Q: What sequence folds into this?
């Protein structure tokens, strides 16, 4: 049986950690001038964990790595 390949898109977006899976926050990359200070402040989170509902799918996509 051939080796499993990880989903290349998922491997760029998620990281395996000791406590689970890490992901980035959306809406924080560009076009920040039209977003309010309040909105940008709420988006200012170091790192987020993948929700329990999505965890199974993400682990499966990262299986080859």
A:
């Amino acid at each position: 049986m051939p080796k499993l390949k990880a989903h290349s898109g998922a491997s760029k977006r998620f990281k395996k950690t000791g406590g689970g899976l890490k992901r980035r926050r959306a809406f924080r990359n560009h076009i920040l001038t039209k977003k309010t200070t309040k909105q940008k402040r709420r988006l200012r989170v170091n790192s987020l964990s993948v929700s329990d509902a999505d965890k199974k799918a993400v682990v499966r996509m990262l299986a080859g790595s």
Strands lie at 14-17, 20-23, 48-49. The radius of gyration is 15 Å. The CA atoms of residues 10 and 29 lie 18 Å apart.
